[in-house]
Amino acid sequence: TSTIVIKIVDDVPRAESDSTTVVEGGTVTGNVLDNDTLGADGAAQGGAVVGVRAGSDTSTSAIGSLGVSIAGTYGTLILNANGEAIYKADPNS
To answer: 38: buried, middle or exposed (CB in 10 Å: 19+, 13-18, 0-12)?
Structure first.
């Protein structure tokens, strides 16, 4: 008689905060997934980012609005499903 014990350790995805600086009227680019842990299963088919929105409303879903310009208080953001981001700061903001 034999006993086999298998322990599976499945790491979970973990999002980390992202921040950078930009001058008035300037543009900054980067990838919001670069410092995240995607977990054992990797990114979802079609990309790891599923949505974005401006503001602090958490009562509705943020799914969607990828690849389009989102206006914020101090500039505009374009975020793609693969995590690539472009932020353009407004002049004089």
So the answer is: middle
What separation in angstroms does the CA of 12 have from each of 33, 39, 52?
A: 14, 5, 22
Least confident of 29-33, 42-46, 50-54, 57-61: 42-46
Q: Please report the DSSP string for the chain in residue order.
A: ----------PPPB---------TT-EEEEETTTTSB--TT-SPTT-S--B--SSS--SS--BB-TTS-EE-SSEEEEE-TTSEEEEEEPTT-
CB of 47 within 8 A of CB of 68? no
Q: What is the pLDDT of residues 50-90, one digit of tens each?
A: 888 888 888 888 888 899 999 999 999 999 999 999 999 99
